[in-house]
Structures are given as structure tokens and as C-alpha cells.
Design goal:
about 260 residues; single chain; mainly alpha
Amino acid sequence: MKRMGMIFRAKANKALDRAEDPRETLDYSYQKQLELLQKVRRGVADVATSRKRLELQLNQLQGQSSKLEDQGRKALALGREDLAREALSRRASLQQQVTDLETQHQTLQGEEEKLTLAAQRLQAKVDAFRTKKETIKATYTAAQAQTRIGEAFSGISEEMGDVGLAIQRAEDKTAQLQARAGAIDELLASGALDDQSGMAKDDIAAELDRISGGTDVELELQRMKAELAGGSAPKQAIEGGTQDAPPASNKFDKQ
């Protein structure tokens, strides 16, 4: 079971490594960093909102404290010491709340400053990572293209390997057909194979046909010469007879 598990993990790791694209991994990491930066910014906004609400409460309590102080002073001026004492007591309670809120405000303000500084640093890291990411992606794409071009030129790529095998098979089949055609021609010429169409001839028959064809040409040439010679002689004889022959005698003149 341990060996099977190791084999399975090894094969899965190899399959994942083959399927992994560094560019996609970098883009995913950059996306995660952007999400983290967004969370930090939302945290800064939440802390700033809380701080602003505390400031509003502080302003409200300070206003109430000032109002109670004025009321106590007026009551004391009117001789109502009891009312003045009550106003000052309420003012002291409000002042304690103001002190607590001021402490919370300082704490929130410190947290806001820390988160703002962290957001700025994270933003700088994200920007630097983005630049490095794009550089690595461009370098990886260029190296991948260069590798493919080199494999194509060397013929070791899968696509070019398939094309090379197809060309090799075509050349082998062509050479085989040419060799078969040449062998058949030699066998037909030597008489080892019979020509079923009756069109093929051996060397002797071809030589006899050539001689016979040449003899026919010579005979035809002699005949044409004889015809030309025979045609010229009668023509000359006819022309000479027309000029030298005596006129024919008329039987009526003899009578």
C-alpha cells in the first residue's frame, strides 16, 4: 500500500507538473495579493469609520459637558447650590466618558496608522510583484517560443516528428513502387513474364520490326523514284512526236 501510494503521488505530481503553467501560477498569486490588499484597505476604512464615530461622540459629550458647566454656573449665580452641584456631578460623569472615548480614539488612530502603513507597504510589494511577474511571463513566453522553434528546426518536436515520419513513409512507398515497376519491366523484356495484353515484344521481334520498317521505307522510295523517272520519259516522247511527225495522209486525196 505504501508503494502504491508513493507511485500514485509520483504520477499525480508529474501530471500536475506537466499541466502547470508558470504564467497562470503567477497570475493567481498576483490575484491573491490584490485580494489581500483589498482586505487591508477595507480594514483601514473600517477603523477610520470607527474613529470618526468616536470623534462625533466626543464632540457631542464635550458639548454636553460645556452645557452642564454653564448651567451649574447659572444655578450658583441664582443661589441654587444644589442645582449647581447636580450639574457639576453630571459633568464629571460625562468627563469620564470623554476620557474613555479619547483613549479609544487614540487606540483606533494608532491602529489606523499601522494599517495605512501596512497597506502602503503591501501596495509597493504588489506593484513590484506585478512588474516581476510580467517580466517572468515575457521571458518564459520567449523561451518557450525559442524552444519550439529550435525543436522545429531540429525535427525533434512532436508535430515535426509526425511530418518527418509521414514523409519517410511516402518516400519508402515511392521507392518500393519504383523498384517493383523496374523489376516488372525487366522481367517482361527478358520474357520471364508473359504480357497478357499482347502488346509487349522481345528484343528479336523488335529488331525484325525495325528492319522490316526500314525495308518498307526503302522500297517506297525506289517506287517513287521509278514513277518520277517513268513519268518524265513519256512526256518528252510525246513532245518530240508532236513536233517531228509527218502529217497523216488523206485516203480521199489518193483517190
